[in-house]
Amino acid sequence: MVKAVSNSGPIIHLSEVNCFDALQIAYVVIPSAVYHEVTR
């Protein structure tokens, strides 16, 4: 299983262009601080 850790930048930009499907990764780890930054 491929894993990745992401900061907020890629998450925000993929959301802006509606392209989360571009991530061909089975498991993405989002730290709680990043989650809170993105969901504000």
Q: What would your notes on this structure say?
A:
The chain is of the alpha+beta class and 40 residues long. The protein has one domain (3-38). The protein is built from two helices and two strands; from the N terminus they run E-H-E-H. The chain has helices at 8-16, 32-38; strands spanning 3-5, 27-29. Strands 1-2 form a two-stranded parallel sheet. Strand 1 (3-5), helix 1 and strand 2 (27-29) form a beta-alpha-beta unit. The longest helix is centred in the first third of the chain and has 9 residues, at 8-16. The protein starts with a strand and ends with a helix.
In round numbers, the mean pLDDT is 81
The helical percent reads 40-55%
Q: What is the number of domains?
A: 1
- Beta-strand portion reads 15-25%
What pattern of helices and strands is seen along the backbone?
A: EHEH
Q: Largest beta sheet: what is the strand line-up?
A: 1-2
Distance between the termini: 30 Å
Gyration radius, rounded: 10 Å
Put simply, the count of helices is 2
> How many distinct beta strands?
2
The biggest sheet amounts to:
2 strands, parallel
